[in-house]
């Protein structure tokens, strides 16, 4: 017999919008938690419309980002600004093990959603709060998105570009999804603490702090007095053997040689220039650094003579470390991802089943829940309200007052 899902019986209220908070709730749902997605009536979470915003791709009839970050949830449409919403909110808090929010501090205060307001209702509540720029400081009130807080402000956007080239727009949600895993880890840590103490806790994460963590190696160097790294000039980089090269068919390969003394002789044989090993300008690491621009020019000409497929065969034969800059289409068919079941089918009973991306946290001894469809706006309002103890008359009163839809 299969064990029940690990988090079955865990109740989660997802009050967050857009990506980081809801995605953390999704990971909890992947392990079996009962997640209730709370949205404002009529308009819902603004994330529902993100797939229609350029440069996001458009897929007719498929709201792919909504499915990715809101699968396996029950949806309730609740107007938190309505006076009648408070009894519903309080029952949700008492029902919940975990509550996730990303309302700005001022909005949270206006709606009575601060931790100090809700924790007395449920001393075992794990209150998880994700912000753009943190809970304190002069910019705590600012709205933050992954492009502004995680990428731009952390320095990542500046450093991950070529010199004299404008910063590039990141893939929407990339910083959010990293932050979601941090929030998930914080929630699980708080649940472990609750097992030991019986008490709930407040968990916080921010896009800005996550970006600083992602930039951590070089940011740490700056903190201890290093000269700040600048965007790299590919034609004259600090290290020609940690650089990108274009093949004859227009593809890019990135070399990553950590042990140069061991790898360079095999590399020179592979590219057809064994004689370079005897050249004093390339003899050791300091000389190769000093002549990086010269080496890049040589390698540019060399890599331009063969296709990507040919170079892969050559480099693999010497067991050299390199990467191929894949397209998203190639990534979607990558046999390594397929072999590790990173893409999983959505259990939506459609004629043409779609795949979605599994969350990256796994336990060999635990089965995840098969992904189901993300909820329509207010799809489960009535069933959730009944779970909270509202009877038919009470639900009708909430509808008449437009507290719920």
Question: What's the short version?
Answer:
By secondary structure, the protein is α/β, with parallel strands linked by helices.
List key phrases describing it.
405 residues, alpha/beta, Rossmann fold, formyl-coa transferase, domain 3, 2 domains, 6-stranded parallel sheet
Any overview of this molecule?
With 405 residues, the protein is of the alpha/beta class. It is 39% helix and 12% strand. The chain is built from 18 helices and eleven strands. The protein has helices at 20-30, 64-70, 85-95, 105-111, 115-118, 146-152, 156-159, 174-197, 207-214, 216-223, 260-270, 285-290, 292-303, 308-317, 328-332, 335-339, 381-387, 392-400; strands at residues 11-14, 34-39, 73-77, 98-101, 126-131, 201-206, 244-246, 252-255, 322-324, 343-345, 355-357. The strands form three sheets. The protein has a six-stranded parallel beta sheet, sandwiched between helices. α1 (20-30) links the parallel β1 (11-14) and β2 (34-39). The longest helix is centred in the middle third of the chain and has 24 residues, at 174-197. The chain starts with 10 loop residues before the first strand and ends in a 5-residue tail after the last helix. The model has no long low-confidence stretch (mean pLDDT 95).
């Amino acid at each position: 017999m299969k064990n029940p899902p690990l988090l079955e019986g865990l109740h989660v209220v997802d009050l967050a919008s857009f990506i980081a908070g809801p995605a953390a709730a999704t990971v909890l749902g992947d392990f079996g938690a009962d997640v209730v997605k709370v949205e404002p009536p009529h308009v819902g979470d603004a994330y529902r419309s993100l797939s229609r915003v350029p440069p996001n791709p458009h897929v007719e009839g498929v709201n792919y980002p909504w499915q990715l970050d809101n699968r396996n949830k029950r949806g309730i449409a609740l107007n938190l600004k309505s006076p009648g919403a408070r009894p519903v909110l309080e029952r949700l808090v008492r029902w919940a093990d975990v509550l996730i929010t990303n309302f700005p501090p001022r909005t949270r205060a206006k709606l009575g959603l601060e931790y100090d307001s809700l924790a007395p209702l449920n001393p075992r509540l794990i209150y998880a709060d994700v912000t753009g720029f943190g809970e304190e400081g002069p910019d705590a009130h600012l709205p933050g998105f992954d492009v502004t807080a995680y990428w731009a402000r952390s320095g990542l956007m500046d450093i991950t570009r070529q010199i004299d080239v404008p910063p590039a727009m990141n893939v929407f949600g990339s910083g959010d999804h990293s932050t979601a895993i941090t929030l998930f880890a914080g929630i699980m840590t708080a649940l472990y603490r609750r097992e030991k103490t019986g008490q709930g806790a407040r968990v916080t994460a921010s896009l800005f702090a996550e970006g600083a963590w992602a930039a951590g190696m070089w940011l740490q160097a700056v903190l201890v007095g290093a000269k700040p790294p600048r965007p790299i000039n590919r034609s004259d980089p600090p290290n020609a053997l940690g650089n990108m090269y274009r093949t004859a068919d227009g593809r890019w390969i990135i070399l990553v040689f950590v042990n140069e003394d061991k790898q360079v002789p095999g590399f020179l044989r592979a590219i057809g220039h064994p004689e370079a090993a005897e050249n004093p300008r390339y003899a050791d690491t300091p000389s190769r650094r000093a002549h990086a621009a010269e080496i890049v020019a040589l390698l540019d000409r060399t890599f331009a003579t063969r296709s990507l497929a040919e170079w892969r065969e050559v480099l693999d034969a010497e067991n050299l470390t390199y990467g191929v800059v894949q397209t998203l289409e190639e990534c979607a068919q990558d046999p390594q991802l397929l072999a590790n079941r990173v893409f999983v089918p959505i259990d939506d009973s459609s004629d043409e089943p779609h795949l979605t991306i599994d969350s990256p946290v796994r336990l060999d001894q635990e089965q995840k829940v098969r992904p189901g469809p993300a909820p329509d706006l207010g799809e489960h309002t009535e069933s959730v309200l009944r779970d909270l103890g509202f009877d038919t008359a009470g639900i009708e009163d909430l509808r008449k007052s437009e507290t719920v839809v």
